[in-house]
Amino acid sequence: MISVTVGNNANRTTVIIDAHTTLRSALEDNGVDYTRGMTTLDGGPLKAGDLDKTFADFGITEKCFLYNIVKADNA
Amino acid sequence: MARITIAGDAVVITSTQTLEDIKTLEKYRPSALTLYEENENGKKVAAFKIGSTTGEGSVSPYGISFGGVTHDDQRLATVTLPAPTGAADIKDAVADKYGSAVLALEKVEAQISDAVAAVAADREAVKANITIA
């Protein structure tokens, strides 16, 4: 089991899940909209196809941070 | 309490519960597989969790994922891990590395039997209301 802090600009929550869970499942199960903005895992940007990989595929064994960040437009 | 067996370079932790019961609770009552504690704000947060997984499983400070079963009729959940290397006393080294997880597992296992019985009763109640036309 791993501890994942998952969220977006406004909200984040820490959950304990199996390392063989996909990133997409973790985001969807915690109500994070990943269709806009940039999704990062431990600060590194994810690319197409990465969301269907598991945390174990990324070598996560204990804890990590999975965020979707939407950058606001400047005035 | 869960059994820890050291065989060669492998450590096997065997739960007192079956993998099937753990999978049932994952589906119907996942909170029964979780230990909660209060954080500094007085809010209940998950501190340790057990569950099932593909592969051999794993142990971390946050929980245990069981991937296997015993080969007898009991089919108890197991997780196979590498034994610590270079230890003068292997029992000490294993207790040091996996002991706190096993102690937390014991607390979770104390919640499982009642939850499994409750889920079984709920399912029977639902099935009693199913008719085949």
Notes on the protein architecture:
- The complex is a heterodimer of chains A (about 80) and B (about 130).
- By secondary structure, chain A is mainly beta.
- Chain A has one domain (about 1-70): Phosphatidylinositol 3-kinase Catalytic Subunit, Chain A, domain 1 (Ubiquitin-like (UB roll)).
- Helices cover about 10% and strands about 35% of the residues of chain A.
- Chain A has one helix at about 25-30, and strands spanning about 1-10, 10-15, 40, 45, 65-70.
- In chain A, strand 1 (about 1-10) and strand 2 form a beta hairpin.
- The model of chain A has no long low-confidence stretch (mean pLDDT about 90).
- Chain B is an alpha+beta fold.
- Helix content of chain B is about 35%, strand content about 35%.
- Chain B contains two helices and eight strands.
- Chain B has a four-stranded antiparallel sheet. Chain B has a four-stranded mixed sheet with strand order 3-4-6-5.
- In chain B, helix 1 (about 20-30) crosses helix 2 (about 90-130).
- Chain B starts with a strand and ends in a 5-residue tail after the last helix.
- The relative contact order of chain B is 0.22.
- The chains are: A mainly beta (about 80), B alpha+beta (about 130).
- The interface between A and B is medium-sized, with 12 and 18 residues.
